[in-house]
Amino acid sequence: MQIKKIELIEINLPLVHFFETSFGRTYERRIILARVEDANGNEGWGEATCGETPSYCEEWTESAWTVLEKILAPLVVGRTIESAAKVWDAMKQIRGNRMAKSAIETACWDLEAKSLNVPLWRHLGGVNQEISCGVSIGIQDSVEQLFEKIQTELDAGYQRIKIKIAPHWDYDVIKRVREHFGDITLMGDANSAYTLADIDKLKSLDEFDLMMLEQPLAYDDIVDHAKLQREIKTPICLDEPIRSPDDARKAIELKSGKIINLKNGRVGGHTQSKEIEQICREAGVPVWCGGMLESGIGRAHNIAISTLAGYTMPGDVSASKRYWAEDIIAPEVEVSKNGTIIAPENGGIGFEVKRDRINELTVRKAKISF
Q: With contact defined as beta carbons under 8 Å apart, do 196 and 217 qualify?
């Protein structure tokens, strides 16, 4: 494929309800979209999943925009690249900036699948067209408010409930959730809010039979997590430190955790996700697809990659209406009463991108052409 043009679009998309983690509250998403176009006029769409500040990782909206416009897009535009699977290599000389790279890389996968008139999920090698869905619920103003949120999601059919935790919102909250809801499939996500000094508190969570405890320690650590995993029964799920196939391999060798949250943007796109999925699958380590409050475009890519064989746990791939009053794709993502999503059979990501809606939300644009 030869990429003739890359269009960058930043949109501001307000959430229907704030989302709070140990990093803070988010009310509105600043999202960078990448539209790639080949010499034949075919197009593909991707999304940079970074946050508004460098809190989850070093990347954030402003850094991603600059890197995309000034460095990454010029590396790709005008080049003839063998396949979408090789787009990562075209940007490999630039260190880090994986979420920015993912925007272009996933857009090229979408373009290629559309050109071939095949669903993206099949093009990626997916085998499970129907994927299981869970939800992520942020820290609330009260436990009663949390109960309401959980009940709403259970009523909607979601198969797994993830609640964000922090030192002020952990043991007592989880205990009350267990007392109220019984043996629902429940997990906690700490977003690196603890250290090994908190080992006794983290051990105490074993009594709640959690499906997993996600990223309790430092965002870049796999050594202390191995120490912690030896001390607790609850499976540790690694998130932030797994940015590459090598990271996954090393974490598995160190026994830093028993599960990996495989976020497409965090690792740089579909090609890297596929490599990590294979490493984990061959090692018997389950993976699942985490969310970054994506718009429908990023969500569509998450659906596609979640169909690979190694994605055996419910992911944070939920319905559009949980986050947005109106999404930027049609039809919007819906979850069945059984808590599943069926990957579409249309070419590419399988959803129509609503340009009128995007234009309403756009705050800046840039075009890089050959």
A: yes
pLDDT at 349: 98
What digits encode the pLDDT tens for the residues 259-279?
A: 999 999 999 999 999 999 999
Residue 19 pLDDT class (50, 70, 90 cuts): confident
Active site residues: 164, 263
pLDDT > 90 in the chain, percent: 94
**83: Cα within 13 Å, side-chain hemisphere:** 7
Q: Do 325 and 332 meet the contact criterion of CB atoms below 8 Å apart?
A: no
Q: How far is CA 207 from the centre of its chain?
A: 29
CB-count exposure of residue 4 (10 Å: 0-12, 13-18, 19+)? middle
Short-list 70, 7, 92, 16, CA closest to 44 = 7
In CATH terms, the superfamily for domain 3-117+355-369 is Enolase-like, N-terminal domain (3.30.390.10)
For the chain, give every domain's residue range: 3-117+355-369, 122-342
DSSP H/E element including 5: strand 3-21
The predicted-structure confidence for 32-49, as pLDDT tens digits, reads as follows 999 999 999 999 999 999
Provide the whole-model pTM.
0.94
Q: Half-sphere exposure of residue 91, counting CA atoms within 13 Å on the CB side?
A: 30
